[in-house]
Specification:
Elements (H helix, E strand, L loop, with lengths): L5 E4 L6 E9 L3 H8 E3 L12 E8 L6 E10 L10 E8 L1 H13 L3 E2 L4 H8 L5 H12 L3 H11 L2 H25 L7 H23 L1 H9 L1 E6 L6 H9 L17 E7 L2 E7 L9 H15 L3 E7 L6 H9 L5 E6 L10 H8 L3 E4 L8 H13 L14 H22 L4 H19 L5 H9 L6
The chain binds guanosine-5'-triphosphate and magnesium ion.
The site of magnesium ion has 6 residues, from helix 9.
Length: 461
């Protein structure tokens, strides 16, 4: 319910220098006043907006001091939620934060749901839905470039683009509907041709936005990259080299890695979720067998597979089995241990075996080939697309899906106009396209989509 006052701890629970309790709603200042004893500005509520006040939180029942705090006051509508917001900056410990939160609840506030502050910001028109979603992307961004995309979206870049599309459509719809309502004032053929042309352009522009969607998703979620190969080819050594850290155990014993190890690495600004897996082979060992099964599952979910071969052993039966497993995936082949057999493995054979998009020769333990591998990964992700600062990338699966629907309706509208079918039909499609664009910014969106989006947020955001 909007209008009541909500409270939550806005900082991660744990030990820290500062922890923040956030209050939002019409009674936020009253609730704070019951607990907060200002040291200097006794009439702090009357003071100007955006001031910090120093003082103590005092339990009104017992009169005992709970913590020494700073109180930040942001009055409606100049706050995150557009409601009155008070932040209590206390010491960052679980016990003092819990205690202050309890006092806020006893004082009349209600515990906020996950994402409820941002949901209020959306419902009060401070952010549209794409911007609200970007808040979470900023928090969860994994590389500097990913952060930049999220901040752009938070600033309304995608929303502005969508608004242009929507305005155009509203205008066209008005023209078409006028001629449906007043058939005696027939729309001139030239106007219809112009509308068809504009619709076609809009469909193309949506397509252009969609073409960056895969790269965008990767910036948001990370590229799920699985390192596979038979035992002992140097998979864990490769993970460690890309991480620049000895994360995984490396030994000369085949079958060293048993479990899937996952780490995030930043490769040329692209977040990569790197998974090292157990070497794939037939085995009687129970633990290793489970590991091999997990490797298979990881491959099934991979965006990209790095298939590692070893130059000294050449291509063996086991490599064929690994290659079969990754069929249909995007593959980069690595021929490792080049220091042991510099001329041994034929590139054409590797290509035929792995159907890889590129083959990189490496000697991981000597640091050779790392740069070439990183370049190969980056160019696969970006597909020749340079991430200039000004590219607008769709990062969100929900937006992508809505754009696809919008484009389909635009194309259908073009078709009905071209076939000179009744204008009502094209109006239906234009309205459906408008609705799909509206879902992105939240002007046309259902309650359960909202619930789903905001339940992903952390408490206090
Ligand atoms: N000479 C040489 N040895 C390497 C190279 N890369 C890895 N090794 C060695 O190969 C052995 C196996 O390396 P790992 O990284 O554990 O291999 P793995 O593929 O993870 O093996 P499993 O986990 O058993 O599947 C270790 O002794 C490494 O030091 C390389 O480029 N050259
Ligand atoms: Mg290993």
């Amino acid at each position: 319910m909007l209008g009541d006052t909500i409270a939550a701890v806005a900082t991660p629970l744990g030990e820290g220098g500062v922890g923040i309790i956030r209050l939002s709603g019409s009674a936020a200042l009253e609730v704070a006043e019951r607990l907060f004893k200002a040291k200097y500005a006794r009439n702090w509520r009357a003071r100007r907006n955006y001031r910090l006040h120093y003082g103590h939180i005092v339990d009104p029942e017992t009169g005992s001091t709970v913590d020494e705090v700073l109180l930040a006051v942001m009055r409606a509508p100049h706050s995150y939620t557009r409601e009155d917001v008070v932040e209590i900056h206390a010491h960052g410990g679980i016990v003092p934060l819990r205690r202050i939160l309890e006092l806020c609840i006893a004082g009349g506030a209600r515990l906020a749901e996950a994402g409820e502050f941002t949901k209020r910001a959306f419902l009060n028109g401070r952010l549209d839905l794409a911007q609200a979603e970007a808040v979470l992307d900023v928090i969860r961004s994994k590389t500097g470039d990913g952060l930049k995309l999220a901040v752009d979206q938070l600033g309304g870049r995608l929303s502005r683009e969508i608004a242009v599309f929507k305005n155009e459509l509203v205008q066209m719809l008005a023209e078409i509907e006028a001629s449906i309502d007043f058939p005696e004032e027939d729309v001139p053929g030239s106007t219809l041709a112009e509308i068809t042309g504009r619709l076609r352009q809009l469909a193309e522009a949506s397509g252009e936005l969609l073409s960056g969607a895969d790269a965008g998703r990767i910036y948001r979620e990370g590229l799920a990259t699985v390192i596979v190969g038979k035992p002992n080819v140097g998979k864990s050594s490769l993970l460690n080299a890309l991480l620049r850290q000895n994360r995984a155990i490396v030994t000369e014993i085949p079958g060293t890695t048993r479990d899937v190890i996952e780490e995030i690495v930043n490769i040329r600004g692209i977040p990569i979720r790197l998974l090292d897996t157990a070497g794939l082979r037939e085995t009687q060992d129970t633990i290793e067998r489970i590991g091999v099964e997990r490797s298979r599952q990881a491959v099934a979910l991979a965006d990209l597979v790095i298939l590692v071969l070893a130059a000294d052993s050449g291509i063996q039966d086991e490599d064929h089995r690994v290659a079969e497993l990754v069929l249909g995936k995007r593959v980069l082949a690595v021929v490792n241990k080049m220091d042991l057999a510099p001329h041994d493995v034929d590139e054409a054979q590797v290509m035929e075996l792995t159907r890889a998009e590129a083959v990189v020769r490496m000697a991981v333990t000597e640091g050779r080939g790392l740069d070439a591998l990183e370049s190969a990964i980056a160019s696969l992700v970006l597909g020749g697309r340079v991430t200039r600062g000004d590219t607008l990338l769709i990062t969100n699966e929900r937006h992508k899906e809505a754009l696809i629907r919008a484009r389909t309706h635009l194309r259908e509208a073009v078709q009905t106009l071209e076939q000179e079918l009744p204008l009502e039909l094209s109006a239906v499609d234009i309205r459906a396209a408008l609705e799909a664009f509206g879902e992105i910014t939240g002007s046309t969106v259902t309650e359960d989509i909202l619930d789903r989006i905001f339940s992903d947020f952390c408490l206090g955001k």
